[in-house]
């Protein structure tokens, strides 16, 4: 069976009832398997993972927007993670024998449908991008919801689909196709945000660090600590253990200690080192976060 994985990120992680209602909406779509959901109150963000064939996955994305837009108002949203929209980003990921071209086609078709149905501006990114300068999610998201109207006033930032103005409460959304990505965070035993930001700059590719690593330094105010929040876009070329050791080395240089790490959402089995709970100091990790295990359980 040709499967496509979808991993939407929404700008809500503090209201469990709201997140559950959105998860139930996704799970209600025939032909779609909701594999995972995770929420981070400090980021005020939730990540869902579901899979199926192209047609039901596309329908599930429409259902997702129907559920989220009435419930999430970015005018009052506050969280540590950057965000552009209530449904912030919707990536399609090929599984097994599915091609990237199939995911690109679904991303572009879905983007057009979302823009028309919800009067929402939509940008395409990564492999689905129509404009090369928009391949990088961080470039599209820069300025966030608060700067979106000003950004969109420039012709170079007219959306790929939808109106050239933000939705009043839902902002804009970014839809694309990409290879498997690991959301990997390392928490530090310090409250110094400058240290987390310096480490993020040292390890991310855009600043001359590790290839295929995107990183931000964030404050987790509710815990009194800081975090190096990362996306690893090619775990084969830059393994997760190498990233962890680089963060730990940079923290040591600055007199800070690594407290723990975490994987948000699901992770391919091949990406994990031996004994990951020990080698990565993973907190709260279980085999249910391994993508292949979830597919078996839900099949």
Class per helix and strand makeup: alpha+beta
- The helix tally amounts to 9
Largest sheet: 7 strands, mixed
- H/E series: EEHEEHEHEHHEEHEEHEHH
Domain unit count:
2
The percentage helix is: 25-40%
Please give the oligomerization state of what you see: single chain
Q: What's this entry about, in short?
A:
The chain has 299 residues and is an alpha+beta fold. It is 31% helix and 24% strand. It is built from nine helices and eleven strands.
Write up what this structure looks like.
It is a single chain. The chain is an alpha+beta fold. It folds into 2 domains: 3-177, Formiminotransferase-cyclodeaminase, Chain B, domain 1; 182-298, Alpha-Beta Plaits (2-Layer Sandwich). 31% of the residues lie in helices and 24% in strands. The protein contains 9 helices and 11 strands. It has helices at residues 16-27, 54-68, 100-118, 137-141, 148-152, 193-203, 240-253, 276-279, 291-298, and strands at 3-6, 9-10, 32-40, 45-52, 87-95, 122-126, 173-177, 182-188, 213-220, 225-232, 258-264. The strands form 2 sheets. Strands 1, 2, 3, 4, 5, 6 and 7 form a 7-stranded mixed beta sheet that branches. A 4-stranded antiparallel beta sheet has the order 9-10-8-11. Helix 1 packs antiparallel against helix 2 (54-68). The radius of gyration is 18 Å and the shape is globular.
